Amino acid sequence: MRSSLNKKWWWLIIIVAMVLINYFASVFHQRIDLTNEKRFTISTPVKKILKNFDKKLKIIIF
Amino acid sequence: MISIARKELQHFFSSLTGYISIVLFLVVNALYLFILKDSNIFDFGYATLISFFGLAPWVFIFLIPALSMRSFADEFKSGTFETLKTGPLTKWQIVLGKYFAIITVIIIAILPTFLYVITIHALSSTGGIDGGAITGSYIGLFLLASVFAAISVWCSSLTSNAVIAFLSSAFFCVILYFGFGAISKLPVFTGNADYYIEMLGIDFHYQSISRGVIDTRDIIYFISVIFLFLFATQKNLNKK
User: How much is the pTM?
Assistant: First the structure.
């Protein structure tokens, strides 16, 4: 590890490592919603409705 | 490490550098947010600090390179880096010592802006502002400033000329903060790669944290960029 990092291409190795870390972080992630009214979290009633919903759904994001 | 950080801090506050940069940051923000027309929070009508968190990164783009341009460039120029190199310190300790001194100055600059939060909270007619969102925004601003500091320390370690260090670090900060978002909006990328290109930039993650949602992806992005630049700095020092 040490010798490979000391070679000429250390920066390439570390950039690839960073990209991999970020990729895995995007696969397994957690989020905390700090806003008072939980503005960016899907609320439980919505989740309940969505569970019993099997038709096509059109979502408008604004 | 701590002794280097302390020495750097003494350097900042025994000359005018530290005071000027902190005062400038606060004066620009206060002028823009509370006094000048058109950008005034009072005229804006909503009890938020969104305009502060939009302005502060642009002030930091000039301020943080100015703070840290001398950190290594001056040592190389005056030859004091030789003494530092022969001392009983690892390269990481030197880099981190300089880095944390800059971080401390940034924290001192950010702390008085809590007054804005108190002001807006007291003035709002509907029972204050959203504390959670503000906390998220402050965490985002701090992480953004730390990334800028890491970039500036790296640029300073590339050259022995402080002015070149300042200009190049301001350039890299703009590229990383604003450039990737702008590139992703080019018509070539719309519809396929734009989301991923935007994700490379700081602004994407900063906006995400600023809303008040703390996501591990954003935190890991910031930490890995900081680590990348500090690692490159450390590598540069080994070459000298």
Answer: 0.88
Residue B101, token pair as written in the block: 């001194």
- From B109, B89, B82, select the one nearest B4 (Cα to Cα): B89
Range 161-220 of B in CB contact (< 8 A) with A = 211-217, 220
Asked whether residue B123 carries a pLDDT value surpassing 90, the answer given is no
Inter-chain touch B228–A14, beta carbons under 8 Å:
yes
Contacts from A18-21 at CB under 8 Å and sequence distance 24+? A18/B224, A18/B225, A18/B227, A18/B228, A21/B220, A21/B224
Q: From the CA atom positions of chain B, what is the Rg in Å? A: 19
* A35–B213 C-beta distance less than 8 A: yes
Q: Which helix (H) or strand (E) holds A32?
A: strand A31-33
Partners of A31 in beta bridges: B215
Is B228–A15 a contact, with Cβ atoms under 8 angstroms apart?
yes
- Asked whether the beta carbons of residue A35 and residue B130 sit closer than 8 angstroms, the reply is yes
Interfacial A residues in 2-61 facing B (CB < 8 Å): 10-11, 14-15, 18, 21-22, 25-26, 29-37, 39-40
The b/e string for B64-93 (b: 16+ C-beta within 10 A; e otherwise) is bbbbbbbbbbbbbeeeebeeeeeeeeebeb
**The residue to which tokens 């005034």 are assigned:** B40
Decide if B80 contacts B8 (C-beta within 8 A).
no
- pLDDT over threshold 90, residue B149: yes
Q: Is the ipTM of this complex over 0.85?
A: no
pLDDT of B151 reads 93
The 3-state secondary structure of B95-137 reads: HHHHHHHHHHHHHHHHHHHHHHHHHHHHHCCCCCCCHHHHHHH
